[in-house]
Amino acid sequence: MSDIWGGMTQAFWLLITLDADLVEITLRSLRVTLTALLAASLIAFPLAALISVRRFRLRRVTIAVLNALMGLPPVVVGLAVYVLLSRSGPFGVLGLLFTPTAMIIAQVIIIVPLIASIAHQSLRELWSDYHDLLISLNTTKWQRIQALLWDGRRALLTAALAGFGRAIGEVGAIMVVGGNIDHATRVLTTAIALETGKGDFALALGLGFVLIALALIVNLLIHWLSHTESEGRW
Amino acid sequence: MTMLPLIAKGATVRRRGKVLVGPVDLKLGPNGTTMVIGPNGAGKTTLLKMLHGIVRMQKGTLDWACPLEDAQQRQGFVFQTPVMLRRNVRDNIAYPLRLTKVPRAQARARAEDWAALVGLGDAVMRPAHLLSGGERQKLALARALIREPEVLFLDEPCASLDGRATREIEEILQAAAAGRTRIIMSTHNMGQAQRLGTEVIFVLNGRIHEFNPAEDFFALPDTEQARAFLRGDIVE
Ligand SMILES: Nc1ncnc2c1ncn2[C@@H]1O[C@H](COP(=O)(O)OP(=O)(O)OP(=O)(O)O)[C@@H](O)[C@H]1O
Ligand SMILES: [Mg+2]
Predict the structure, then answer these.
(1) Is the CB of B22 inside 8 Å of chain A's CB atoms?
(2) Cα end-to-end span (Å), chain B
(3) What is the pLDDT of residues B75-113, one digit of tens each?
(4) pTM
(5) CA distance B28 to B10
(6) Neighbour tally for A43: CB within 10 Å
(7) ipTM score for this prediction
(8) How far apart are alpha carbons A9 and A17 in whole angstroms?
(9) Closest residue to atom 30 of ligand 1, CA basis
(10) Correct CATH for A13-227 of 1.10.3720.10, 1.25.40.10, 1.20.1260.10, 3.40.50.2000
(11) In chain B, which residues have their Cβ closer than 8 Å to the Cβ of A232?
């Protein structure tokens, strides 16, 4: 018990003095996750809009695949990325394994299905609203997609935040492809796992507080956004 | 090149094995204003949408006097329940212009003119979903007219307007009709049909039951059903 208490006080101390390791790890976490989020959004938003406006035969299949991918254990995604990026793998020459880029790739794969699926739910509804008008105005597919993405932007933000929450707290895949290397690929979650294993509760707890704070902020934002959305409809 | 006449031959819309409209044989000439009337559920909305080309026909043909792609660009539709884009009133009205690459500032300026014309001048910056039912119909009308379509379909455009707004809208429609816009609209308001219409399509059970000049129709319809409808009786 005294261990934990001591850890807590030390953790607060680390936070207040802006401990160099803590700051470095937090910033790396943010950099990796925000980059992954940006890339994932660029893929997921247009995809969600496309499957909303198109009646192509594959829509059901696409949605089913997205839903299945959402349920993939992240550590398995990590394993797959590891195999692809490892020296003997097809992308081995790029030398990406155990770099932040590898972690970003893994996170993108994990959150694209989540973001696309949440975004699709709202855009689908928007499309059923807009359908008659946009068809009547003789819009091109691309113009329809643009209208949905623009007018549905708040719902898209909510979807992105959900993706952020999932990515920032993810540990399995990141550990496998990043390797948790000090000053290179160590991020909040992997550091917590390591420090806890070593019994260094102070740093682990400090990192934990940061992680919880980030997750809380994001959840509050989601809540606030979806609240304003249901109130004013946008 | 002129769009009209529009010629429909055996045009039929079927959903779930049930014929909603048709077979329709119809020729809409270049002049006049056509009123589509008939009881609830008769198929007026479906007929208008079919002519506009946004519901798929299971049978028959629909031919404009010009290539279909042209025709699609040169016609507009005002829906019975107007669709509000999640934008403000001005950007809603400007939207059709933005689709044809009119610069934003110019599109907005013209949208503001149209907003003023339909009586929404004070509401241009309001989010469209906050408008009342009648205001939404005015917005939809302005949005349809801003492209100056040669053919304009309107599905009960005055359904939730009060007397004064109805008159204002009718004036706008008359001005458009006096210009180069060919109007085909449905209505439940027989006074309006008489004021605006030069010809009447009476729809019953998905078919065109009567298609006559407005004067003749309102003086004495050909069929017993149309007479009953005009008297306000139940149409069998
Ligand atoms: N997609 C659809 N699937 C099945 N039935 C439909 C569909 N759309 C319309 N209908 C039916 O077709 C009939 C004609 O509908 P329509 O909306 O054209 O009538 P209307 O003459 O416009 O009526 P109102 O005066 O009430 O507007 C109705 O019985 C309606 O329930
Ligand atoms: Mg109708």
Answers:
(1) no
(2) 43
(3) 999 999 999 999 999 999 999 999 999 999 999 999 999
(4) 0.87
(5) 15
(6) 15
(7) 0.91
(8) 12
(9) B41
(10) 1.10.3720.10
(11) 127
